[in-house]
Design a protein that fits this description.
By secondary structure, this protein is mainly α. It has 8 helices and no strands. Helix 3 runs antiparallel to helix 8 and helix 7 packs antiparallel against helix 8. The longest helix is centred in the middle third of the chain and has 34 residues.
Length: 190
Amino acid sequence: MANKTHLHDNFEVSFQLKGLNSILIGVYIFLAAYAYKYVLDSYLIDNHALGMLSPQLIEMLFVAIAFLAFLFSSLALFFSGKRKAKKFQYKLWNGKTKAAFLKYLLGILIIFICALILKNYGKIDLITPAFLFLYSLLLLLLKSKGDKSLYILIAVCVLLGVLCILIPTYWYSSLTIIAIAHATYGVAVK
């Protein structure tokens, strides 16, 4: 039995974007998109509490929403991986999982930096397409070897990113669609 545990690919067991993980990430993306839409709509309404906030506070609120979505998504992946590693009696952290974790952190950091650069240059309409393109690249980099069905989710991200460039007001719908696609992927691929 000990030899089998050493031969098994821990990365395949520990961190997977399947089942409940993908559903939860879809829910977090949807909640973040809804929060952005609510804050923007409320900010534009007269006599609403959010309308009284400064643009700088609204920007800080947006960064906090993005950070919380990232944090909860990361925790979903971590705790699921920890549970699977314990169930199959594998080490959670090995060379492959550490390398994947560094790729993941680097990818998320690049997404955040790109969004901040676009915001600072006033290219707010390009934040959602940039997120979708970079997120699809992150999914591609972290894809498991045998998981060809993830290409559909990647393609949906890219197509929605192009659509957001062509129709900038489609950002909320695009994020909602990618959230639904994530949840659907989680249900379909277990």
